[in-house]
Amino acid sequence: MVRTLTGKDGGPLAWILEAGPASYVIALFKGRYLVQYHWGSRMEPGLDGLAAISAPLEGFGAAQDLTDKSYGMHRLPQEYPWPQGGDFRSPALCAGILPGGQPAMDFAYRRHSIVPGLPEWGGLPLPHGAKDDGPLLHLEIELKDDVSGLAIVLLYLPLPGSGVIVRAARLENRGKRDLKLDRAYSFSIDLPPMAAGLDLLASDGGWARERVLERRRLGPGRVELESRKGVSGHGSSPCAILARPDASEDHGEVWAAALMYSGDWVLSIERSEEGGFRLQGGLHPELFSRTLLPGQAFHTPAVILAHSGDGLAGLSCGLHRFARHNVMPAAWAEKERPVLLNSWEAAYFDYNEGDLVEIARGAADLGAELFVLDDGWFGKRNDDRTSLGDWEHNPAKLPQGLAGLADKVHALGLQFGLWIEPEMASRESDFYRAHPDWVLSLDGRELSEGRNQLILDLGRPEVRAELESRIAGLLASARIDYVKWDMNRPFSRAGSPGCPQGEARHRYVLGLYELARKLTAAFPGILFEGCAAGGARLDYGVLSFFPQFWLSDNTDPVWRAPMQDTASLFFPPQAIAAHLSASPNHQTGRVTSLASRSRVAMAGVYGLELDPRRLPPGEAAAVRADIAWYIRHRGTIQLGDSWRPLAPEDDGNWTHLCVSKDRREAVFLWMRPGAIANVGPERARLPGLSPDAHYAISSPDLPLFGSRVFTGAELRVRGFEFEVPPGPDPRALAFELSATDAEQGW
Ligand code: GLA
User: Fold this and answer.
1) In-domain check, residue 160
2) Distance 239 CA to ligand 1 centre (A)
3) Within 13 A of 328's CA, how many CA atoms are on the CB side?
């Protein structure tokens, strides 16, 4: 819902965007400047409130309008600030008039329009509407600086079904001189002063140590979250959460911003001298600039803005709905994902067709539904030094080609999936020898390699056209049901001949989106999984094309569980692949119980990353039972709502709760990461259940627990207790809950 509130003279006073439980209100100050009036719980602004907006100049302010010296921009909560105009906080835009670079500024309101549907956005992905959103409307507000001729068109799109507001900006050179954009953020928002302060939830990390989350109170100055790696990064998705200090999993006020972008990004949070908080971000300004010639326009990536008054779970449940229904390709939103076995940790590069068929047979015997052939099947690739780009099967390994293997896998009752890394070329490849000038490079400098590979220049149409035809040919050459699209190195020395340096990396991302858009449209039946050396590219940009991700190469459950929790703040379990691997773990070397590896994997899209032939005695039966249990509950896990419900005592145990949409079924997963002696019963609280329903709880891991009945209210508020029998560490349990007519017994 989008509305304009008009004043007595018929001119606009404010714009009101409503999305589910959230409102976003933009006011027009002095008929000129856009002011952030409210972003939070649903409310209707009153005329008196809007009329009372003031920004007294005194206290070291600088008047911009000498006919009215009553206000200073440094106190106005702004929607898209610029520098040199008396707002001394960080700007959203740094643009200059060429030559010389005199700043574009003084952007004043010009016009607005409320338009049905969605605009085309310069090749960048935008969310799409879903059934629950009703007919979509978007608002465009135009600001202009007459001296430079630069116009800013701010896009606002509320999505009522998920409570999300989408923003973006389009910058248009309407003047006669060339302009240079050195910073063109997607958005900026000023939250009001909060006496108790505000917490930032953000993560960092690296390969196999993705997404280590920290919560800290914001102090003086500006905090920047970012990636300069050319991809959104292992440390963090391009996302940030702000929380009132008292906000928790199921209580309190929280805000989130997530860029719909897959390249270099920045999000910053600045505490102002008034105690308010400026949240803003977009393309990383150190790695982006753009010259805008007269008549040209530039679109920024979109940003997703979400608010909840019901804590982190309220926020993430809305974002999960958004990710599924407004971002991922519509055909995959309600589809349960198959249980797969991936060959990587089973065989690495060392296999032939016979081995693969045996591994696939083992997978089928365990109850898996899809066999994925990972790296090593093409060119001369027996290690990671060669052949990327040569997307032809290696006849020494696959004498009957991909089609022959795919048929054998299908004959076992499994779907067939394939690993590719289309954005890269090995120096040691026929493809690179034929096109040595198709890789990202800087004039006159040595190429740089990461994992022995070079990055193809997807910004160039001829490179994309060749890749599209090769990959389309490959995907059509066998019965392929799934593709793991990998990307295994960060950007460095990344330039493109003839392309201004500040534009090359962004053009790459646009090229990637175009390639992904075309290939996913050409093969709508293929399930694409995004991967970048584990989890270096998890973002709503890629999610528009690939409906699931590989979160990390680290499958050690003690590491994996918190990584999954961090990812689950923004992405639903249906989009997060989680595999049971062998012990000791191949990345950390840690020995862990089968139960812990399997229960943690059950919180996402369950899969196997092991050789079934090498399962220790007795484990095959347990894995088979786990897969059958998972498939029985997969609808609840993948398509329901999920919580990270901390135990009442915050005892350090990992917990994950999934509740079906009708609230009649639930799955609760629990793990104690460390060993402990002399411990009493554990207790877990399960928010998210229907308070009035009765639930029968049982666990495949605790035969003596039997089936116990509790009210939803008791489980939500007090929780339930269970004793954990001795066994290999980490101890981990799965519970299933089902609404029942039976009452609690005495
Ligand atoms: C990356 C992926 C792994 C695997 C290898 C293959 O590291 O994250 O899962 O596919 O590449 O080379």
Assistant:
1) yes
2) 24
3) 26
